[in-house]
Amino acid sequence: MKAQKVLIHCGDVRDNDLASYAQKIVQRMTNNANFTDPQPDLVTLQAAISVYTAALIAAKDSTKENTASKNAARLVVENYLGTLGTYVNQNSGADLVKLDSSGFALSRLPAPIGILPAPTLIVRYGNNPGEVYFEIGYIPQATEYLVLYSTTPAPADDAEWYFTLFSSTKGTLSHLKSGTKYVFKVTATSPEANKMNTYNFSNPVEKFVP
Question: How many domains in the chain?
Fold first, then answer.
C-alpha cells in the first residue's frame, strides 16, 4: 500500500494563506523531538516568512514592482518548504504521527475502487464481413473493459472464451468467422477485480455475424 507523506509542493496555496501555513509549520516543528535538525533551519524559514508577509502587504497597491517582489518572496518560501518537507519525509520513517506533528499537509491515500457494477453492452454489425461494433455503458473508475466472446453454444468456463480489452467504451472486433452466431459479454475492470479475478458481467448478447 502506498504510504502517506507530507506534501512538499504548495503552489496551489493562495497567497494570503501561504504565510499562515508556513508559520504553522514553524510553530509545530520548533522543539519537535521528531525532527531535531530541520533543513533548512527554522530561523531561516521564519525570516523568509517575514519577508514574504511584508511583500504581500506591499503588493496590495498592485504596482508591478511590488507584485514582482511578492512573487519572488513567495518562491523563496515555497522552495524552503519543499526542502523542509523532503527532510520531514526522509526522517519520519513513514510514521503518520511524526508526519502529522510537522504541521505539513498530508497526502491522501487512494481509496480502493472495488468490484465495479456490470456495464451494458450493445453489439452492432460492423462495416465489413466478420466484424462487429461495440458500445459499452460507461462505468466510472473503470480502468478498462474486458469483452469476452465465443461461438454458440458458449463454454461454461469463462476462461475458455476469447477475450479482448478496450480502453474506451466503443470499439470494433474483427476477424470473426462469417456466417456464425457469437455470444458477447463485457465487464469493467479495476485493480481489485483483477487481483481477485472477480467481475460483474453484462447480460450476454447473441449476434449472428455476417
Answer: 2
- Count of alpha carbons within 13 Å of 25, Cβ hemisphere only? 34
Query: Final residue of a domain: which of 44, 72, 101?
Result: 101
Residues 125 and 204 in one domain: yes
The alpha carbon of 160 is separated from its chain's Cα centroid by a whole number of angstroms, namely 34
Tens digits of per-residue pLDDT, 97-134?
A: 999 999 999 988 766 778 899 999 999 999 999 999 99
What's phi and psi for 20, nearest 5 deg? -70, -35
The answer on pLDDT for 2 being more than 70 is no
Instruction: For residue 203, give the DSSP letter.
Output: P
The position carrying cell 458481467 is 201
Give the integer Cα–Cα distance in Å for 41 and 194. 47
Answer yes or no: are the C-beta atoms of 83 and 10 closer than 8 Å: no
pLDDT in tens, 161-179: 999 999 999 999 999 999 9
51 - beta bridge partners? none
Domain end among 101, 134, 157: 101
Beta strand pairing call for 132-136 and 145-151: unpaired
Please, are residues 52 and 79 in contact by the beta-carbon 8 Å criterion? no
Tell me which residue range forms the domain holding 66. Answer: 15-101
